[in-house]
């Protein structure tokens, strides 16, 4: 009991004396967490409550108080919580969901509109390397799926197998061309997209240092 009381007393004294505090090259967040001093006012929320970015000079401030870089405005990424930085932009390409994206994001292999509008399924995009386009639809399949020996339908209506020199009885519909497969594709795309955003943020951060 005596030991517990002493330990508790030591903690109270340490806090009262400001120990442990932050080092000379550190900044203390309002919750007491220390971060590197040069993370203060660097346009990134490093403290849990964003206190390192509150009292900073700022050229472009979101209505929510967040400070953003000039080139974050109308860059296709929503940086302000209310989308202020992406409102009233001249739009190269507007997704049906209202999002504005730069023209070089269309047909770049990333799903940027919520309904995949900017991808090969919707736009007349060229198919990337090692893939070919299905006749009359915007769908790319790997070259090896074109006229494959098993006769599997990879394009809608089996158009990838329609003019191949093989017996018609070997034609069979692929069980891979299903909604289930489309869903797993979408799931992968969302993960890729999250990864893209993270990389984009890291890129910005390194370039702003
Ligand atoms: Ca910061
Ligand atoms: Ca933005
Ligand atoms: Ca895209
Ligand atoms: Ca095929």
TrEMBL record:
Family matches, as CDD domains: LDLa
Disulfide bonds: 22-34, 29-47, 41-56, 62-80, 74-89, 95-113
Range of residues in the leader sequence: 1-18
Molecular-function GO term, any one: hormone binding
UniProt cross-references to SMART domains, sorted A to Z: LDLa
Keyword annotations: Disulfide bond, Glycoprotein, Lipoprotein, Receptor, Repeat, Signal
InterPro entries reported for this sequence: LDL_receptor-like_sf, LDLR-related, LDrepeatLR_classA_rpt
Gene Ontology cellular-component terms listed: apical plasma membrane; receptor complex
Source superkingdom: Eukaryota
PANTHER family per UniProt: LOW-DENSITY LIPOPROTEIN RECEPTOR-RELATED, LOW-DENSITY LIPOPROTEIN RECEPTOR-RELATED PROTEIN 2-RELATED
Protein name: Low-density lipoprotein receptor-related protein 2
Organism in which the protein naturally occurs: Folsomia candida (Springtail)
């Amino acid at each position: 009991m005596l030991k517990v009381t002493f330990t508790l007393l030591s903690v109270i004294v340490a806090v009262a004396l400001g120990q442990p505090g932050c080092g000379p090259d550190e900044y203390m967040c309002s919750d007491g967490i220390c971060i590197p001093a040069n993370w203060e006012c660097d346009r990134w929320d490093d403290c849990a409550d964003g206190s390192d970015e509150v009292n900073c000079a700022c050229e472009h401030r979101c209505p929510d108080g967040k400070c953003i870089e000039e080139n974050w405005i109308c860059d296709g990424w929503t940086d302000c919580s209310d989308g202020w930085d992406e409102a009233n932009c001249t739009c190269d390409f507007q997704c049906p969901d209202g999002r504005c994206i730069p023209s070089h994001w269309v047909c770049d292999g990333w799903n940027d509109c919520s309904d995949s509008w900017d991808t090969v399924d919707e736009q007349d995009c060229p198919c990337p390397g090692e893939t070919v386009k299905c006749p009359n639809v915007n769908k790319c399949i790997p070259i090896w799926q074109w006229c494959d020996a098993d006769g599997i339908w990879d394009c809608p209506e089996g158009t990838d197998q329609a003019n191949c020199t093989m017996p018609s009885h070997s034609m069979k519909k692929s069980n891979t061309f299903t909604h289930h497969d489309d869903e797993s594709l979408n799931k992968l795309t969302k993960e890729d997209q999250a990864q893209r955003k993270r990389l984009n943020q890291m890129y910005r951060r390194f370039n702003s240092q």
